[in-house]
Amino acid sequence: MTKVDKKLELFNFIPLLAIRFYLAPIFIVAGWQKWQNFESTAQWFGNVDWGLGLPFPELLLWLTIAAEFLGGILLLLGLFTRLTSIPLIITMIVAALTVHWQHGWFAIAPSNPSTSTAQFFAWLNIPGAAESLENSVAVGERLQMAKNLLQTYGHYDWLTETGSYVILNNGIEFATTYLIMLTVLLIYGAGRYFSLDYWISRLFLKSR
């Protein structure tokens, strides 16, 4: 290990802390929202016609709430981080497969094929990439038509004052991103100094 490596090693807790603080509010709010809307969410979990069609929807919903809300709090504290990451990883896998998979990769549909990440995969002739680029063209046309209508019949400056319009695709992009980040926490833990796991382990080692 070089001197540079040793010095960088001193700061290896920073990305782990950043991941925890990034993910914690996402999961806490997601779990809280499900808790506050338990009945309607349970119906969506279980309904085979317009929902996910999952078995034991109320039980699965309680498990999801526990994983997200309590898990988010534990991530924030850096307590039982590796253990907490496991049910959250499972939750992300289930969400990706049951909710988002049918919509493809992108969370927000790209409207410009030249800036779409699918362009990279099209260069490699990866199946589905060319179709994704064609879809971007169609998305761009629809988005431009919507903007034209709003500019003609709406107060466009006011409507776009807080941000431009996009087409929500609801693909697996975010779920996969969270899954990758949770896997990092599962492997490396909460990190030093700013986690209860770190201080508990130090106390345990001192007591031995």
TrEMBL record:
UniProtKB keywords: Cell membrane, Membrane, Transmembrane, Transmembrane helix
Transmembrane regions listed in the UniProt entry: 12-32, 59-81, 88-108, 178-200
Subcellular location(s) of the protein: Cell membrane
Any one annotated GO CC term: plasma membrane
Main location, first listed in the record: membrane
Record membrane topology: Multi-pass membrane protein
PANTHER family assigned to the protein according to its UniProt record, in alphabetical order: DOXX FAMILY PROTEIN, OXIDOREDUCTASE CATD-RELATED
Family indicated by similarity: Belongs to the DoxX family.
Name of the featured protein: DoxX
